[in-house]
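INPUT
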Amino acid sequence: MNDHQPLSSPLLEAAVTELSRLPGLGRKTALRHALYLLRRDPEQAQALGQALIDMRLGIKYCSVCHNISETEICPLCSSPARDGSTICVVENVKDVMSIENTGQFRGLYHVLGGVISPIDGIGPDQLEIESLVERVKSGEIREVILALSATMEGETTDYYIYRKLSPMGVEVTQLARGVSVGNEIEYTDEITLGRSLLNRTPFGAAFRR
Amino acid sequence: MNDHQPLSSPLLEAAVTELSRLPGLGRKTALRHALYLLRRDPEQAQALGQALIDMRLGIKYCSVCHNISETEICPLCSSPARDGSTICVVENVKDVMSIENTGQFRGLYHVLGGVISPIDGIGPDQLEIESLVERVKSGEIREVILALSATMEGETTDYYIYRKLSPMGVEVTQLARGVSVGNEIEYTDEITLGRSLLNRTPFGAAFRR
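OUTPUT
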């Protein structure tokens, strides 16, 4: 199929054009999805279309942690079962899901909305850093865990937040850097290997917890 | 991400579930699309959702050729510029697009809706074969071109249609089988090679047209 050839039906063309605006979804795949929906019950297209509209209009951001939420304050922030003295700082909503799925964290989150990246024009003011400082200032926060990407930008952001928070007497920690579980030493890069040597842990510590 | 872990937001969960019902689109990709839409203007999700609904409700099938159409009779069937004496028989709507994109055909189409496949429980009655016979019976059809897949099922269907139509005095032809343009002989399978020898054409015939 010629990618620039408009389709004979304007309705199909509109659906394919909108679908292909999704990330990594080309016109060919969009057409395949559209033709698939045409072969199915009308209810399926109706349910999909309505779910996307309802999701976009119904989901807001939690005014405390900036995670997605259908309420003013998200279920995590308002849950009495969570440890309110620990905040895990993450880049985005997806990272909250990833950490929740580990089942290893019972504290609260703070979604920055990205990392400091001068090359993309993202400075501290575009991120939810000031609101994190406010949270630490006002609450009984004991520890802030930095769980940002182990990249140049992530570590720059880590350092920026550390400089802001450390004078306030809160403990600032960072996710451990080390050899990925399942990886061979031979294929682990030298910087990671160096960090994993520096931060070595007593043998079996992870099992004893 | 655990694929079976429900998401914290029911609205997000509904959108991801509906998206992942599209063919070849897993839950991870569905989540990526949904989170992407959450980061964009509400108008984009609205446009996508509405386009899918409008498409499904607005597109019907042409009562003559069974191609998709927004009108009772599709633009191809009602166009005076098309040659009404030739019908190209295809499996599905996508095949009409592919053949239209070649720019080599000016006749009309007939969309069967599949091929005969006993293993999938698809017999001649599930396909638009009877309506093709009716078209040939009632119209001034000179030639029917069979453009079905070169598979066992496609050729079975070709033969079935040929048996139905040949007593009616219409010419029944089939797409040429041969070496794909751009392919090396070394990598062409022997059945195709055999067919391409049997159906060899005068050298340069394609250029002279």
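end of record. The first helix of chain B runs from residue 10 to 19.
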